[in-house]
């Protein structure tokens, strides 16, 4: 998204254990994960080390529906 302050990207990640999911992406040798990790760094500046924690962003809002799904 283009903003007056510059380009901005908002990513939505959902997982039962988000820290574990990021760590898996950071260390996996699966071809897709390697490709995804390379693109995270080239586009967003997120390195594998950053994905292993602490999170490079902060949760400001979490919603859980009546069925208990976040």
Can you summarize this structure?
By secondary structure, the chain is mainly α. The chain contains three helices and two strands; from the N terminus they run E-E-H-H-H.
Query: Structural class of the helices, strands and pairings?
Result: mainly alpha
Main beta sheet, described?
A: 2 strands, antiparallel
Largest beta sheet: what is the strand line-up? 1-2
Count of helix runs: 3
Q: What share of the residues lie within helices?
A: 40-55%
Radius of gyration: 14 Å
What pattern of helices and strands is seen along the backbone?
Answer: EEHHH
Instruction: Give the total of beta strands.
Output: 2
Shape: globular
* Average pLDDT score: 80
- As residue ranges, the low-confidence spans are none
How far the N terminus sits from the C terminus, by CA atoms, comes to 26 Å
Strand content: 5-15%
Q: Describe it for me?
A:
With 70 residues, the chain is mainly alpha-helical. The protein has a domain at 18-54. Helix content is 40%, strand content 6%. The chain contains three helices and two strands; from the N terminus they run ββααα. A two-stranded antiparallel sheet has the order 1-2. Strand 1 and strand 2 (6-7) form a beta hairpin.
């Amino acid at each position: 998204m283009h903003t007056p302050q510059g380009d901005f990207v908002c990513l939505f990640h959902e997982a039962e254990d988000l820290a574990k999911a990021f760590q898996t992406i950071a260390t996996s040798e699966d071809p897709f994960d390697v490709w995804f990790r390379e693109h995270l760094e080239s586009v967003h500046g997120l390195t594998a080390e950053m994905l292993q924690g602490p999170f490079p962003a902060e949760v400001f809002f979490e919603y859980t529906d009546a069925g208990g799904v976040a």
